[in-house]
Amino acid sequence: MAAPVTKRRKLRHDSDNGSESEGEAGGVPSAPFDSGSHTPAFKEAQPKPSHTKSDLALQDGVYTSEVFKSNIFKLQVDELLDQVRFKYGKKTALVETAMRKIKTIIEQLPSREPLPIVDAETALRSEGVAVPFPNPRPPKDAKYKLQYERPSNINVTGSFPLKTATRTDGDFAIDLVVTMPKTLFQEKDYLNYRYFYKRAYYLACVAAGIQNSKAGYFKTSFDCLNGNQLQPVLVVHPSGDNGADDFSSSKCVVRILLAIPENTFPESKLRPGANCIRSQFASEEETSNAAGPTPFYNATLQSDVAVTPYLKLLHSAAAKCEAFKDACILGRIWLRQRGFGSRIRKGGFGNFEWAALMAVLLQPTPGAGTPPLSTGYSSYQLFKATLQFLVKHSLTRTPYGFNVRDVTFPKTNFAPVFFDGPRNLNLLFKMTPWSYSRLQNEAKATIDMLGDSTADHFESTFILKADLLTFHYDAVLRIPLSSLEVDPVSEDYDEALLEKLRSLYNTLTRALTDRVTTLDLLAPDHDTWEVALKRPPESQHKSVLVVLSTSPSNANRTVDLGPAAENKKEAASFRQFWGEKAELRRFKDGSILESVVWSVKDTSVPVMEQIIKFTLKKYISAQAAERASFTFDSYAAIIPSGRVQGQSGVFAFSARMNALANLEKDIRGLEGLPLQIRHIKAADPQLRYSAVDVDSMRTPASIVIQFEVSARWPDDLCAIQRTKVAFFLKLSDLLAEERPEYVTRVGLENQSSPSKNQAYLDIILPSGFSFRLRIQHEREATLLERQLKDKTLDNQSRESAASALAIYNRDYVHVPAHTQALQTLCTRYPALSPSIRLTKRWFASHLLSSHFSTELIELMVVRTFLQPYPWGVPSTATTGFLRTLLWMSRWDWRHVPLVVDFSSSVSAPSGELGTTEKANGSLGTQELQKIQTRFEAWRHIDPAMNRVVLFAATNLDNDGTTWSDRGNPEKVVAARMTALSRVATNVLRAHEDSLIAYMNGKGPGEDLNPFKPESLFVSDLGDYDIIIRLSSRFSTKSTKKTEPKFKNLAVQQGSLSEEDKRNVGYAPAALFAEDLRQIYGDAVLWLWNPENFDVIAGLWNPMVTARRSWKVKPGWNSMPQRSAKDKEGEEEDAGADIDINKGAICNEIKRLGGEMIASIELRN
Amino acid sequence: MASNKAAKRPPKTVSGFAILPLTLPSLPSLPSQCNDAKHYLYIKPHEPSHPDPDADRSLFISNVPFDANEANLRTLFAEQFGGLRVERVEFDGSVPAAPSWKRYKHAPVVSMAAGSSGRGRKRKRDEEVVAEGVVEDEESALPRVWKGELRPSGACAVVVFVDKASARGAWKEVRAAVKEGREIRWVGGEVVLGVQRYKQHHALTFPAKPLLQSSINAYLSQFTAAETARNRLRLKARSVPDEDGFITVTRGGRAGPARLEDAERKQKELEERRKKNGVKDDFYRFQTREKRKEREVELRKAFEKDRERVEEMRRRRGKVRVME
């Protein structure tokens, strides 16, 4: 059998290659060839009938692990390809018929005699078509004539005949290319737009022919090919009249492109270095040397020449390389999800460029080694290698040439260069520096995530829409087009606007320095126009968007340092750039530097905004500075200290952390403790930078103290708890001696279960910070484990031991470890702490947080930072929060666990995304497998999700249920989280859509932004059955003491009165809510906002409290009803039904709450 | 609901229980539905499943109000049912829950009532051996942090009267009240509610240090006694073979029980050593071949599993759709 031999060879090859990935270098082209079996072509071919089906599957399984990222990834890619592939069938047959008809019409058009420009235009106008001349318009006195002759060729091109089209595009455009006969042109027509005038006339003739044809009825309009005003094209729409020629149901339009035969003009004249636009006044020889090159003009002309050659190239690539078409489709999806397109204003890199780039990279270059792509690659390998190529080559700085001989690239050119020698074209000529840098960033992000072997990232690569401004960028600057002050009716409008944008890009990039990591310009799209009209000037109601990703540690810096004063040349340039803003300053380290200082007094205007306004005013126009609107981290104001300050996001917590450090020193310094202290560990959100309220003095922060191992402890759980109390008493005596200013008190807890922790020690510092100390004694865990296995204990006791063990592990092992991990992450990612706090505020304001352990919420946000794909690490609270929201709205928690690996780290967003590093103790494939298995086991034993709903595991805690066991949250609450986050993301998407519409001049007037960030934080109480409003005296907001004017002074002086100290930790509303929970058990689901306790809302549990037949212990306050069977009510004791007694329950609640309750509302 | 009630008057009895409506105190700031809300008690003579000497002088009440306690039920019977005297009331639950200790399977079961209302009553400690700690008395218990217990919604109570006659009288009175539709008011009381309850709790949570100290001293001495009792029990277990003839290994033996963990660790170490010194498993050709086959099988399995997973994904969320 041949197959096994091949297989073995394959394996050997791979082991030789070792870790070499399927990337850039490519290896031996034929090596992974048998892997091509995944393509449909294989199924058709069925080369070896001896293979059984499972053999094939196995082969797939073996090979895809190398050729595709993973089995799962491959299977998903296959499915995706099947889904998006364009379906050729009845509906497309309609458009094909239409195209054939159009072709016939064009072929039968009569030739037109050569006419001078003015006559030609008039003639066509009478036929209802305005010649779409490009700007500048042709001179009236031109000596050449315009003429129409039968096209030499008409052909379908693009992705439709190549079968790489995807269904996901809206109206699908099929390209019909009409090749103009060579005879129409003279040798010098490539100069001074002459070609383009003739081309425009030719197109107008075709348009007139189709419009006035009797053979078929179609609607027509003009558009510019890829938004390039030099290349108008004719778009043929279905008539929509249900007539014979109507192809509306195919959801297609036909675009008629024009092309010219090769060698119409000399190739060398159209290379990037040549000049083709001569001044009218100078003689030819002079200008060709003096005037600069016109690469864009040349490339545009050459692209008309290269239409057919590229069609050939793509076809041959598809024939040579089986996976080529699939890779094209993958590329299309990838580009689409990132908002790229062939149109100049969409970045100038679209489906055609992707396919052509791949096809060129597949070509062998004689003498240049192996090509970057190999024909044996799988579609995934082609896709990935193409991205890698883009990442690796900074084509803006270093042009890349394929088979290039004696071509010079002008230095002044701003576009990236990928010069395809045989077809004489820079494929990327439509790109701008900013769009190329965005393309590179996106490619880099994708390569990074595909390199992460622990997760498949299929979703973030292809499914997620990555170009959503709201989630992608930190800041958006909107500048009305009109304020750029470019005259829309002038002849060089397009160029002038582009020049303006270029200057905007350059000055902003320079001004913002390392505050931003990416900066991109989004320009509005061009519109099509009717054939009877002249091309209308661009509407000035549109806007340009500048989108920014910021660097969290630099964005709000207040001083920009420039060059040293003695460095004359650079200093001068710096001064010139900043104008009156530049100052010469002497700094602490003695250096004298040019610098710019930004105001921090007016905190309402962020530094970024000040810089941008300044730059706009100085370099663009005063109007632009005035009318531009800037949104940056707009949600940060919702929480205290929400904005990243200086270099860190945890600055606001430093006073508390210092207090803890001092306390630890004090405790460790105590002499006379019976045992030595091993650890003092923080175990509280306030000590891991994730408490919403930064400086609340009300709640003590938990810490855990662990003593050295000793045999003097009793060997009994209950007695251990009492011994702890003795320890606390001792500790508090000692502290009172050493630090009389500290207030200590021993508090009691868990009185219902004497073997759980019974006591804690509160220490209240004079500064007002308070800490709650508990003792961890490892022996407890051992004893509990022993009880768990002890068969002489009754079941109930063993169960309670199990739950006690889980609580022990959570409180003494996992919470401290989690706290430590969060501390590290919050210092590494400045935006993490504010993002967590903002997210917690969201949970709280929707009354959800009493059902989620705070650690669980933190993990969801940490996930956003550690698995940020397809984006970079968030750098503001806003992006961190919104992306978490987006993820929550898409989290299918029924089937997918949340897995966070604290040790994985994506390097901070310093311009480029780092690779995912793996440290010790990180999650390996095996652990991930284990977590997955455990998750599936939970779903298997508890399919109704009564106990575990959300499953969240980390590398520190593989259990997955530590934070969510025992219905915390319950299913209904988790579903509410999903529903609320969906509503929120929909609102955000709608807002973004209106922003985009506004950018394209289609939105409402100037007053956009009716959207307030706060609106996401407003809870709708209409959904609840019972609403208890607490009197304002008892909701925590008002019990908070009035803020002193100078907070730091107050903290230093110790402003807490005796009364305040006694009341630390006193929260009557929380106790009341807890009472409600215990009294009503699972009959009522209570929700509240623990941050302010203004409302406690309840939902009757319909499963439990629905009307039922009477029983002794239903578990809720009931009222008897005549049972449905007993209609007459005569028969005594016929049995009765019971309902939940809502009235009596309200009365009970009022009795319990007394004066705390302002009102109770009941929904019917 | 109100109209419903008017059309159909609520039943007066159910499964042998008399249904006694209680008028609730009228309180401000409640929704209108609550104005004439009644609380319903379901009462019948106590018929415990286990024989109980007090059964014939007890009434069983289901669905007691959340603020019911011994004192206010006593008042209820004394004042609104003709001066009937209640000896004690036993509830089946409380908020916060009464402390519960882990117990041995065959240890004497303490009745439903003892857990909740038994505090302060004398208990024969020697007879009751809990698996951990001691059953505390007033001295050794930690100070309580809540004054007064609440009842979970829909809880039950057993009201024990001073004698049989009172119990019978009470049952008669209750039935009469139900039949006549006499208004019985629920007064509650005897328990601190509202913000005072929480203020009190906050104060009680932090008891005076000397009080704590003395409670701990008492506890630890009682604990020593309890340990002795438990050791006696263990000793007995050590010397008595079970029905299969095995003697249970228990704590407190001469050399201490074998440390299972240690033994396991040693075993593992030994295996590790053996593995190292043994024949390497890629020594023979057949071994490599077998290994490769094994790996192939594994891969096949993994692939099948992945395929199932993707299949399952498709089933649950339908076709793959690119996000628009």
From TrEMBL, chain A:
<keyword id="KW-0687">Ribonucleoprotein</keyword>
<dbReference type="Pfam" id="PF17403">
    <property type="entry name" value="Nrap_D2"/>
</dbReference>
<feature type="domain" description="Nrap protein">
    <location>
        <begin position="323"/>
        <end position="465"/>
    </location>
</feature>
<feature type="domain" description="Nrap protein">
    <location>
        <begin position="1021"/>
        <end position="1160"/>
    </location>
</feature>
<feature type="domain" description="Nrap protein">
    <location>
        <begin position="641"/>
        <end position="827"/>
    </location>
</feature>
<dbReference type="GO" id="GO:0034456">
    <property type="term" value="C:UTP-C complex"/>
</dbReference>
<feature type="region of interest" description="Disordered">
    <location>
        <begin position="1"/>
        <end position="54"/>
    </location>
</feature>
<feature type="domain" description="Nrap protein">
    <location>
        <begin position="471"/>
        <end position="620"/>
    </location>
</feature>
<keyword id="KW-0539">Nucleus</keyword>
<dbReference type="GO" id="GO:0032040">
    <property type="term" value="C:small-subunit processome"/>
</dbReference>
<dbReference type="Pfam" id="PF17406">
    <property type="entry name" value="Nrap_D5"/>
</dbReference>
<keyword id="KW-0694">RNA-binding</keyword>
<protein>
    <recommendedName>
        <fullName>U3 small nucleolar RNA-associated protein 22</fullName>
    </recommendedName>
</protein>
<comment type="similarity">
    <text>Belongs to the NRAP family.</text>
</comment>
<dbReference type="InterPro" id="IPR005554">
    <property type="entry name" value="NOL6/Upt22"/>
</dbReference>
<dbReference type="InterPro" id="IPR035369">
    <property type="entry name" value="Nrap_D4"/>
</dbReference>
<dbReference type="GO" id="GO:0006409">
    <property type="term" value="P:tRNA export from nucleus"/>
</dbReference>
<feature type="domain" description="Nrap protein">
    <location>
        <begin position="174"/>
        <end position="318"/>
    </location>
</feature>
<dbReference type="Pfam" id="PF17405">
    <property type="entry name" value="Nrap_D4"/>
</dbReference>
<dbReference type="InterPro" id="IPR035082">
    <property type="entry name" value="Nrap_D1"/>
</dbReference>
<dbReference type="Pfam" id="PF17407">
    <property type="entry name" value="Nrap_D6"/>
</dbReference>
<feature type="domain" description="Nrap protein">
    <location>
        <begin position="829"/>
        <end position="992"/>
    </location>
</feature>
Automatic annotation (TrEMBL), chain B:
<dbReference type="GO" id="GO:0003676">
    <property type="term" value="F:nucleic acid binding"/>
</dbReference>
<dbReference type="InterPro" id="IPR040446">
    <property type="entry name" value="RRP7"/>
</dbReference>
<dbReference type="GO" id="GO:0032545">
    <property type="term" value="C:CURI complex"/>
</dbReference>
<dbReference type="Pfam" id="PF12923">
    <property type="entry name" value="RRP7"/>
</dbReference>
<dbReference type="GO" id="GO:0000028">
    <property type="term" value="P:ribosomal small subunit assembly"/>
</dbReference>
<dbReference type="GO" id="GO:0006364">
    <property type="term" value="P:rRNA processing"/>
</dbReference>
<dbReference type="InterPro" id="IPR012677">
    <property type="entry name" value="Nucleotide-bd_a/b_plait_sf"/>
</dbReference>
<feature type="domain" description="Rrp7 RRM-like N-terminal">
    <location>
        <begin position="14"/>
        <end position="201"/>
    </location>
</feature>
<dbReference type="Pfam" id="PF17799">
    <property type="entry name" value="RRM_Rrp7"/>
</dbReference>
<comment type="similarity">
    <text>Belongs to the RRP7 family.</text>
</comment>
<dbReference type="InterPro" id="IPR024326">
    <property type="entry name" value="RRP7_C"/>
</dbReference>
<dbReference type="InterPro" id="IPR040447">
    <property type="entry name" value="RRM_Rrp7"/>
</dbReference>
<feature type="domain" description="Ribosomal RNA-processing protein 7 C-terminal">
    <location>
        <begin position="205"/>
        <end position="321"/>
    </location>
</feature>
<protein>
    <recommendedName>
        <fullName>RRM domain-containing protein</fullName>
    </recommendedName>
</protein>
<dbReference type="InterPro" id="IPR035979">
    <property type="entry name" value="RBD_domain_sf"/>
</dbReference>
<dbReference type="GO" id="GO:0034456">
    <property type="term" value="C:UTP-C complex"/>
</dbReference>
